[in-house]
Fold this sequence. Notes:
Blueprint: H1 5-27, H2 29-37, H3 52-91, H4 99-113, H5 115-138
Amino acid sequence: MRISRSRLLFLIVVPGLVLAWYVSALFGVEGRIAWLANQPGVTTAFQHPESGKSDALIALISFSLLTPIALGVLVIALVLLVNALAALLVSLRLPAWLSAPVVAVTSIYAMYATSPSWLPMSLYALGIVARAYLVYSYGQGSALQ
Length: 145
């Protein structure tokens, strides 16, 4: 008996969605989204009575399209950096595999050292996305306290 691709996809997607729903309830994802959406800088976003919901949808679509692109560019940059360092290490007669841990440790340290400059804007952006999700999903006056 051969299962078609659409049935196989259905058998994978439905249990995956149910599992995601239970996991999100277990970890309190809605509460964290509400906390992000209730940050002081984003509480007034998407409150226009006529266009608030459509603006929220545009923000969600933009976030879902641009985030994978940005992450892909970041991964490509890291891979190029690892390969460039590997070429340098090989020319110095060191093992090439050493370039990946060096780039990883350096990247983690750089993120930690510069976190005061990028963390507030990242939390603001996540707050905007959370506010957009709440406004689009539950309406204008939603806060999910």
